[in-house]
Amino acid sequence: MSVTLLALPYDAGALAPHLSRASVQLHHAHHHRIFAETVRTAVTGTALERASLEDIIVETAGRQAQAGLFQAAAETWNHNFYFRSMRPGGGAPSGLLAKMIDRRFGGFDGFSRAFVAAATGLIGSGWAWLVVERGSLAIRTTANSDTPIAFGETPLLGLDLWEHAYVLDHQGRRADYVRAFLKSLANWEFAGDNLDRLLDQAAVPMRASFAETTRR
Question: Residue 162 and residue 192: Cα distance in Å, rounded?
Fold first, then answer.
């Protein structure tokens, strides 16, 4: 495998005014690029040279001697996911995912309050996620470079909480950034596709179980 910097799925200015062109360009072309290049350099000539980012993360997680490679690989994967977790204009959950949010959080407003509370409650840098864990939706935060896939959870949506993601546009006001993401940027179609992919990969009874849960 050759780790490359994934192109943005939209123009860098398309998320304005919530995230400016300057902010998105700096985030993608500088921070994201450095992580991808670090992974590529580190695995060249090793047994992990042809491994996927996911395999590199699983292989290096918890291994102190490979902490630097884990950090770079996890940050590369997290950023790939983060930029796809947004879209110009945002949207709203639909289908099975919307029903699961209603069931788990009492509606989108309840989910939003819980997500903002988790994201603003994280001390220091890290990430906020909507994940599927043991067949149920959950909100998770991971510190620094950690990622849900290192813990066996499936992320549906992810938000970068490192200050460089929002300092230019929100002056360090994390809560404003998180609310803007939920209201105007979150790519719920991407989240729904991730849920569908998980269910397609799982046993057929799992989809039936999810559907039954939303009817209770």
Answer: 25
